[in-house]
Amino acid sequence: MSPPVLPRKKAVLRAQVIKSLAHPSRILMVDALGSGEKCVCELAEVVGADMSTVSKHLSLLKSAGLVAVEKRGLNQYYSLACPCLTDFFRCVDGISKKNSRSLREACGL
Fold it and tell me: What mean pLDDT do residues 38-50 have?
């Protein structure tokens, strides 16, 4: 008996979440948020971009449901809405190490 097939709608939703992570700056921000909430100015420093660019990235992450925002006074503080992302990144890092090792072996290094 074959396993149940993932419904297309669920596959599309997963793809949207993964696409929202598909930029190095957004990955840096999510990684930084893994250690606790940050304001836009702190994330701009981490990414090395201006605050308006960082805000656009954060808006995309927020619309994907990956980050939450809390306004305090004039500042907005971002946190991970989905802390399990750090586990996902650890998994990705493991894959990257494995692929890197395989590539080095294939090249005789």
Answer: 96
* Residue whose pair of structure tokens reads 């294939």 in the numeric block: 106
Q: Is the pLDDT of residue 106 over 70?
A: no
CA 20, CA 45: separation in Å to the nearest integer? 21
Cα 60 from Cα 10, distance rounded (Å): 19
Both tokens of 63, joined, read 């619309």
Q: Which domains does the chain have, with CATH numbers?
A: 8-82 (1.10.10.10)
Q: How large is the greatest C-alpha to C-alpha distance in the chain, in angstroms?
A: 58
- The pTM score is 0.81
Instruction: Read off the pLDDT of each residue in 43-72 and give the average, rounded to a whole number.
Output: 96
Enumerate the β-bridge partners of residue 80.
Answer: 67
